[in-house]
Give the backbone structure.
Amino acid sequence: MTNSATEGLSDLDTGPGRLANRLDTVDLAASTPDDEQPYSELGLKADEYARIKDILGRRPTTAELAMYSVMWSEHCSYKSSKVHLRQFGDLPPSDALLVGIGENAGVVDVGDGYAVTFKVESHNHPSYVEPYQGAATGVGGIVRDILTMGARPVAVMDSLRFGRADAPDTARVLPGVVAGVGGYGNCLGLPNIGGELLFDDCYAGNPLVNALCVGVMRHEDVRLAKAEGVGNKVILFGARTGGDGIGGVSVLASETFDAEGPAKRPSVQVGDPFTEKLLIEACLEIFAADLVTGIQDLGGAGLSCATSELASAGTGGMHVDLDTVRCATAP
Amino acid sequence: MRIGVITFPGSLDDVDAARAVRLAGGEPVALWHGDHDLKDVDAVVLPGGFSYGDYLRAGAIAARAPLMQDVVDRANQGLPVLGICNGFQVLCEAGLLPGALTRNSHLHFRNRDQVLQVERADTSWTHDYAVGQRIVIPVKNGEGRYVGSDADLDRLEGENRVVFRYADGNPNGSSRDIAGVTSENGRIVGLMPHPEHAVEDLTGPSTDGLGFFTSVLKAVVNA
């Protein structure tokens, strides 16, 4: 028994499966700088991989590589669009804007001590791959952004762009997208109060699926995504972590589709609006009980993004015990 | 008068139902699905929503919630109970009302202002209406098609237990345009449309829904 196990390990030590089968620690990464890593498969370009090595002064561990790949994806870092988005920061400040760029959603004063928060976000690639679940989880994400600002979500809207109305591909994608947006919001009690729809050849193979959520709150109820203070507990709650959606932002959102590519279907997450409804009520209750220092929702990059963004916006680091994450299936 | 509104996991219109009770002049009392405590209420409303995410079947899991055992016991002793939309589905699954709600015949979710014809004005929840009166309240469902065997439906009609029928168009393919039914004693009523969304001019198509809640307050006083 012992012998065969040892032999197995020594095979792995020299074979190509070594990294996948053994804990890739920082020490190991530092002592094996030239090991090949699947950065390209994770959606990173060669110059980005070189930059990671430059920052760390060594190659990343497999876990670090996976985190970089999602954090540096277009979905999370807006690397191609941030030059345009920055212009909003140059606009003259308004007294009505209570919370601006950098948080989960903006907050606008509407008088009498009330504020509304709203945000629109795309879920284009997932919706193209799996229309119903892609659009549904797009709504789920935007609702959580509103919720984490401290507001009760009250309505959703959508803005959709498809290729020609009579194209077979439009017929494949459109019904599921419409049903996904409406169905998910409805299960949360959120009416879809409006939207817009355009068909044009330029969207063939690349439909745009944007969902908006609006929430209402009192001024004093605004919450921010900052983990400040020493000794606070970090609590993960909501749907269990599953195998669906892994790498969804880096593999799905950042690359174009081609017919020869491998099937990417499993990267689209499967929505659970019932759990999100419970999440809404649970969050509003713990806000009301004043138990929260900072809160961040999990988006496409999951725990990697939520923990690092919370920590970097706050005043210190964060210990994350991944072994305690509740999984949808046995790991 | 204390009118209980049950919140199940996934209930969505519980706050609206409580507001309707208050606007009608009653005292809304929040009831929790997991308790065995009806808090001495004089009547109970099961609100709309997606209790337990409609998993298994709409209303099937909520019908087995701890509090529902108390509701069934008290309902059998005459406690007035109103089930709206998902609440109607729960009452059917709990055996308090006959029939079942299935997927709409056209397979689409349908949300619109709906005309209903009042068929019974002597139940606990419809005293303030008149037989033959037409009211307009919102309907919003994907699984609202009322069905039963022909024999069951004949018996139901023979016993005059249809409370509301859809008028000016049936939104979901319900058998014989049935929108709501009642128990033998007329104290339990279930319907798919939403009276609690038609209680204020600002937000509803009418205030026609208020009659449900004013009716039960009088029914409780007279009981």
About this structure: The radius of gyration of chain A is 22 Å.
